[in-house]
Amino acid sequence: MQLKRNLLSAALASAIALTATGVQAQTAETAAEQNQQAEATELDTVVVTGIRRGIESAISVKRDSTSIVEAVSAEDIGKLPDVSIGESIGRLPGLAAQRVAGRAQVISVRGLSPDFSTTLLNGREMVSTGDNRSVEFDQYPSELVGGVTVYKTPDAGLIGQGLSGTIDMQTVRPLSFDAPVGTVGVRGQRNSLGAAADASAYGERINASYITQNEARTFGFSIGYSHTTTPIQENQVGLYEPWQAIGDNWRPGVPAGTFYSDGIKALRRTGETKRDGVMATVQFRPSNAWTSTLDLFHSEAEQVDTANQFEVHIGDYNGTNDPNKIRLIVTNPSINGNNTFTGGTVGNVYPLVRGMYNRREDEINAFGWNNEFTTGQVRIIADVGWSRAKRDELNLENNTQMLPFPQFDTLQLQIRNNGFSQINPGRDYSDPNSLYLTNTIYGSGYGKAPKVVDELRTAKLAASFPAPAFFTDIDVGLNYADREKNKRQPEGNIDRGPQGDTTIASDLQYRPVDLGFAGIGYIPSWNVPEAVARYMIFSPNAIAPYLVAKSWDVREKTSSAYIRGNIDTEWGGVSVRGNAGVQVQHVDQASDAIRLSGGSNPQPIHMGKTFTDVLPSMNLAFGFDNDQTLRVALAKQVARPRVDQLRASLEVTASDGPDQNNGTGLRNSFASGGNPMLDPWRAYAFDVSYEKYFGTKAYVAAAYFYKDLQTYIYTQTDPFYDLSAYTSDIPPHPNFPGVGVNPTGSYSRPVNGEGGTLQGLELSASLPFDMFSDALEGFGAVASATFNDSNIQIRDPESASSVGAGDIDLPGLSKRVYNLTVYFEKNGFEARINQRRRSDFIGEIGNFNGNRTLRYVVGENITDAQVSYSFPDGHALSGLSVLFQASNLTDEAYQTYAGTKDRPLEYVEWGRSYLLGVSYKF
Description:
mainly beta, 32-stranded mixed sheet
């Protein structure tokens, strides 16, 4: 695989070098020779469709932009090149996708995590259903999006710009079409893992779009609808974090100093996701002096799944306690050369069979109204926008064990880092009548009901007018954004009802699920919410001390003003396009949350601050002979802190008794929480890009970027912080009634820490092979290779159990990212295969507590393919297309680990997905 990656990089570099060399040779030829060669290599101007249409449209966007951008364009109405927007974006140079539940859901731009980029819809910043700002792209149906532009360099007029990049999704504009057009499509889907429990392996995708205009072309209307049902099928083996070096006799039979995990689980997750989306656009252009555009978007989704799970604690905890404790015993332990426990015979353990249910409902609504007026040489734009996202979630768990207590088992354990670890219990856990809802070693159950609401209102007024001398015209503008995000997360134990211990009745049982991939065999699966309703009591609590950090409101009011001078001229015979300007951002951020002192006395707390950033930027594109472009960009950039880091939540506690070592005679004080006083991430950026175009048919490019981050936000602890404003509320300890609390204590919270540099090299090319030989007509390739490097090291104490307490690399940073698409298109037949690779990185996941945590993720190699046939004009079936798509052809696993790869945390397979369907264009 390393050889293949090196060959791809070498091929891209060679293509760029050969192109440049060829261009230099051409300039030395006589005019006659140049004309002769031009005739030999002239790119025919023809009407292109399908794959080539999408590629050439994207090349046009890249070539014509004054910024450094990447683009994806729809191949036809309702037809982006991939099943999801995330997969299409994740193939662009400098971008990488992280899979969540098997889907390309979050995007890293230029080696930085999704925290550093922003997402727009038709130029307006969008809300998110997550705890932060980053958009989950699978919530936007690909059938309703006409294209995506990724701005790698900002300009002063780009509102909502990110530090790593700005991703702008665009819907169609009906007056841009020459005539009415419509399409309908139906595809069936199947997951290769097959059906399990009550869940099917099948799903469907249905879409319809229609675009029309009146005869005078003063009015246009477009509407699109998309429905998907996607099966959820997952096999997983996971191990507990942390992997720790154990002491003597901590785990009987395992030598001291061995790195050991205290638990292991295997599960089959089953369920489905249903999503419906509607997009509509109305355009009114009564004259060239006024164009009014109204955009509407609605998306709603429901995901329901259950993890049917076998789990066992192997850390010397089996429910027995002193003085009658029966200890774990490990025989024949296997320990590798890195001092990591890799298996053995594990006895005196008490396994559980668990049902872990999740229901998530998401809804996104967006509205935008843009009016563009032209009077003389002055252009005025007025734009208002509103978007709102809502997430309601319910997590329920049932825990069962064999009775009477305790029913010990002995496991044959093999821990693997390149496949599913093997558990191999001695007992049979397939009989639901032998498993009881009881107060197991993990209790009888637990539940959570997170709720998130994110609302954003925007208003913009801008104008463009001619400029004398250096600039061709000047753009000025004002923008106001008011965003409010709220989170609540009630939680609580799920206790047994008055009936006490009980098995789960047969009418609630589903088909058993097969955990043979982990050496376990079959276990029962059941209807978890109905079991809770029939047998259990669930009363979630929103104000318990440990929930303080999960209940908050954050509000941001951002006022922006900009001036941008546009350039379109010649310097010494070289064409120059671009812009230079400055954007000023004033932000008023505040948060309302709960302050808790000594585990009680909840009080409201309000904190916030204002700050102003002045952001100069410049983009220059120098045009040389033979369609060559050299771009240079300079900018100061910012990215606002994560929303959850801005929470005002604060918990202040104290030690039980006085500290005998600090000489104060007082109880030590401790505090933890968010930080509404954070400044944004700030950076200075330099970009340079060389691009060689062949009309809109092909290009090769090489780009270098450098970012100097002045600060990086991460959690730190100040051991000598003044907590006097809060320690007086801590009640006295009953055993030390006269002992006060030290007003100076340790305070852990996100802060603006030291930054560093990030740099990278991006090589890319899009080449139809008929440029080299007529025999290769229809074949082509799109490829890119990205190399990132950073000296920034951070610490994340909240993720210490998985990534360690020391310095780690930037989350989201893969040092190498490769993308390759090879295609064939001719006479209505289309075929392509796509591959995207990325090296190891630190990814973000949601942990059991519903909080963001970091983990090392093994690099991935995802391969997709599709073939289609469109019947030609004049055929009886003209307008009809047949399509087959396959995703994750190699069934690539998702793997995480703790520090080193021989200490795995998760090994997950989501299977292959196959889609077969038809579409009709009219």
